[in-house]
Amino acid sequence: MGKTFKRPEALKDNPTHYCPGCTHGVIHRLVAEVIDELGIRGRTVGIAPVGCAVLAYNYFNVDFQEAAHGRAPAMATGIKRVRPDLMVFTYQGDGDLASIGMGEIIHAANRGEKFTTIFVNNAVYGMTGGQMAPTTMPDQRTSTSPFGRDVQAVGMPVKMAELLAALQTPAYITRQSVIKPKYINRAKKAIHKAFSYQMENRCFSFVEVVSTCPTNWGMTPLDAVEWTENTLLPYYQLGDCKTPEPREEA
Amino acid sequence: MGKVLMKGNEAIGEAAIRAGCLNYFAYPITPQSEVAEYLSRRMDEVGGVFLQGESEVAVGYMIFGAAGCGARVFTTSSSPGISLMSEALSYITCAQCPAVFVNIMRGGPGLGGILPSQGDYFQATKGGGHGDYRLFVMAPASVQEAVQMVMEAFPIAEKYRNPVMILGDGLIGQMMEPVEFPEDLVVKPTNKDEWATNGIGNRSDDSPNLVKSLFLDPVQLNSHNLMLKAKYDRMRREDVRYEAYNTDGDYRALIVSYGTMSRVCRTAIDFLKEEGLEVAMIRPQTLFPFPEEAVRDAAGKAGCQVAVSIEMSMGQMVEDVERSIQGRCPVEWYGKCGGEVPTPEEIMDVVRGMLKG
Q: Which is deepest, A50, A143, A249, B131, by most CB within 10 Å?
């Protein structure tokens, strides 16, 4: 009997530095599986963010560039414009993409840049130690909202997928999660679709993945899964926000 | 090809194309917007890449991305825009990517004004962004020299895997002069397979390339900085450029001046010669590496009573002049900024006054 489960070629054989119960590892694996399935490892370039996934290049077995905080979409634009043959993806967290990098992601999406963004939304800054993010939930306590997010003072959490879907430029915009196997399967399909749209040079593609951060939420991994399901997912609803028009058959 | 009459900004755009750089990202800002306007048409004709980014911040990273995957790439901007790109410059320098940045300086600080200035000397030569880094900085004094420096900038950037900045004042961008594009300055891009993120499948070995600037281990970061410093020291040894004017005979004063300002100084020196007053000039063509030895030797010549740094800024280059001369003669500064350019007569008065005093 042959091997039925193995490490994707697009992942290195390195243990990750991610905390127990963090979903970065699962998302890395899904992206790597898609890269393998599409046979694009030799021409893929990833952009690492600033945040917990800054060391993503220690795990992905593809070329990588490391951006400054929030600037990954601009960097991806630079690569994709001069080398359209390369497959380019950014991998960004919520502080990176929805706060300091809001300008870069909106304009890249609006130009219809032909790269893929994996947006990992866990409603908190991870690497800097659990500060409030633009996606932090109302009343959610963080190290900079010790009394809970006060929406009167700092507004409501940003729904990035819906915000980007409001742009008139065609795109594939979807929100997924990976906290349970059924969600993982759907997320994998979405990531596959996102990379496929890029391969066909059709549109910008964006997969938001609602994720966990047990460490900074102060929860056990199991409680974090439950909190995601009961608190995050009713607000960040899963599913496609926008898909490109079907291509007319030649 | 013969000479053509071109505006500086357009000539700079054309020079990059002639040098084999077909990738340009930029954001409009006076007084250099004509580069983007010119290249929006020209890049289309030559099958190159033109993109107007959403901000100078983003443009800095478009340059970083493109340079990181091994493409020849450049941008142009003016002072406030370069401030915004300075974040990317720090990253690009640490990640060792070659790229060319052109700064057609306007008056500052703040929004300042839109007229020619040399107020970004510190920003260009001492680092506008964070951390220990240097740019290779070239300062043209004519449209023709701007063309040549742009063409030479790409191989220099590739030699050092470091950004090169062309530091021109607004006049260089705005004035029209006859130019030609020397074919002997065209150098083929180097092979970047060793480090660029051009796709594993496009290279012979199977290991990923990584373009990054994060070194969490202090020992590693220190050695990385030592390696960068060794590059900057090599620039100092191998690629200092300057022009010496009227330095052959004896002279009583030395002017140090660059860019458009140096042309006014040259006229003043010619007029003073007619009066029988000999004044010499060192015109740095590279501001980093600074021509320290040339300035020191010229100032140390017997009979030279004073050295004066004449700038369209409030005394920036004078610090490098002082550092170079090391007390061999008194060092003075004269300058104006905000778009005011000292006249030859003013400079003559300044030099005469310094020699009296």
A: A50
